[in-house]
Amino acid sequence: MQWDKRVRLWFIVSLFFIVCIGPFSITVAQETVPEEGELLTSEASASPVSITVQRESLTADNTFEIAIADKRCYLRVPPSSFPSDVESMTLNFAEYTANDDKITWGVEIRLETVDKLTQPISLGMPVLAEENVVMTMNPRGWSVVQGELEGEFLYVPVVESGIFSVTTSSNLPTSPLITCKSDSIQIENLTDGEIWYTLDGSDPRLSETAVLYEQPFSCAAGTVKAAQYKDGFWSEASSETIPNLAFQLTQPSTIIPVTFVYEVDQGNWQSARVLNQSEMEILPDEGGRIDLLGIASLDIPPDALLADRPVLVRVIALDLPPEVLQDRTALSPAVWVRFRGLSSPVFTLPLQLTIQPMDSMPECTGVYIWGTKPKESDDPQAAIHDQGVTITIQTGGRFLLTD
Predict the structure, then answer these.
(1) What's the start-to-end Cα distance of the chain, in Å?
(2) What are the C-alpha distances in Å from 150 to residues 104, 121, 130, 131?
(3) Mean pLDDT of the chain
């Protein structure tokens, strides 16, 4: 009797499992925990590849081999690429498939742990021919990434998530030709496509300040960078430093004398009233422009300032008291140009200071400069043109337009 009860109980429990649980399948996934630097790969070639790197396990040279689809890539991770508060990074790699037949092959990289690296890591991608180049996708289209060729692999820098692809250089548009003429700056399109350019030193393929080129234009100083865009691809950027065109861009111009005033009474200058001022940190290798709207502008060409760090540049407009002016008539506010962080007070290239007079242009007959002219600098020049009076300066000082 007791045995029959057990049999019946076993039968009821078995029937319950068959009826209620039988139709469902149970799958247990075994998660693989990677060792430091170990690659997680799948037998399926299309599967993503993941790599986890620990900062403390890295040495000076850390190269990982990664199999993505049927391609072999390499990844170099320097310890300096880790942000200061991150000890472990996970990077995911997957094959990128494009609908464009110009793209031979591509890789998509996703950083899980951080948004951006402090120093770039290097991705070595296989290139099948010498004319192959690596591009990256940005919001404005595909653009070439400069890399170093080592054998059959081109190593490109990576600082954030993105897509990198291989194409041949013949698929890229031709870089535009920049010509600085006496009266304008012209950019020639050698093939059929759009030309975009910048004047602030930024890359026109990436910069939000890029302007579509339509016709020749004028610019007193700086650097023109231009690139051609066609069918989603960017050419490599062209760059040209604008020479000293301040006296050539507006025709005709009138040269006026420049006079140095050496007797500087600091007590009198302290009573001068500040009308406006502007300051900016300038990277010496990039240069820049500082504007005092309606009063003055200062154009600093690249490599004009001798310094190994950013230079703080101030442009100050002053209303001079009579004791400073003496018998002179001011046709403009005095413009004081000051620098902090220079290795030498003399510039390697002249800067262009343009001052707008308060009254009609013909009344201006000269420029006064308060300060001492360095022996190693050239004599400053000044010329009247449509935008005002432009002075070539090779050191800081106080500048005033007079009659």
Answers:
(1) 129
(2) 19, 16, 11, 14
(3) 77
385 strand-pairing partners: 388
SS3 string of the chain?
A: CHHHHHHHHHHHHHHHHHHHHCCCCCCCCCCCCCCCCCEECCCCCCCCEEEEEEHHHCCCCCEEEEEECCEEEEEECCHHHCCCCCCEEEEEEEEECCCCCCCCEEEEEEECCCCEEEEEEEEEEECCCCCEEEEEEECCEEEECCCEEECCEEEEEEEECEEEEEEEHHHCCCCCEEEECCCCEEEECCCCCEEEEECECCCCCCCCCCEECCCCECCCCEEEEEEEEECCEECCCEEEEECCCCCCCCCCCEEECEEEECCCCHHHHHCCEEEEEEEEEECCCCCEEEEECCCEEEEECCCCCCCCCCEEEEEEEEECCHHHHCCCCECCCEEEEEEECCCCCCCCCCEEEEECCCCCHHHCCEEEEECCCCCCCCCCEEEEECCEEEEEECCCEEEEEEC
Chain segment 296-354, per-residue pLDDT in tens: 888 888 888 988 889 999 999 888 877 777 777 788 888 889 999 888 888 888 888 88
- Mention every residue, 6+ apart, whose C-beta is less than 8 A from residue 183: 218, 248, 249, 251
Window from 75-84, 89-98, 366-375 with minimum mean pLDDT: 366-375
138, two tokens:
């940005």
Backbone angles phi, psi at 337, to 5 degrees: -110, 120
Model pTM score = 0.51
Tell me how far CA of residue 173 lies from CA of 103, 168, 186, 216, 231, in angstroms: 14, 11, 18, 21, 9
- Beta strand pairing status for 194-198 and 141-144? unpaired
Average pLDDT over residues 117-145: 84
C-beta atoms surrounding 363 within 10 Å: 13
59, 69 Cβ separation under 8 angstroms: no
Confidence of residue 249 (pLDDT cuts 50, 70, 90): very low
Query: In the predicted model, what is the mean pLDDT of residues 99-122?
Result: 86
Per residue in 8-37, pLDDT (tens digit) is: 555 554 555 444 444 333 232 333 333 333
pLDDT at 83: 86
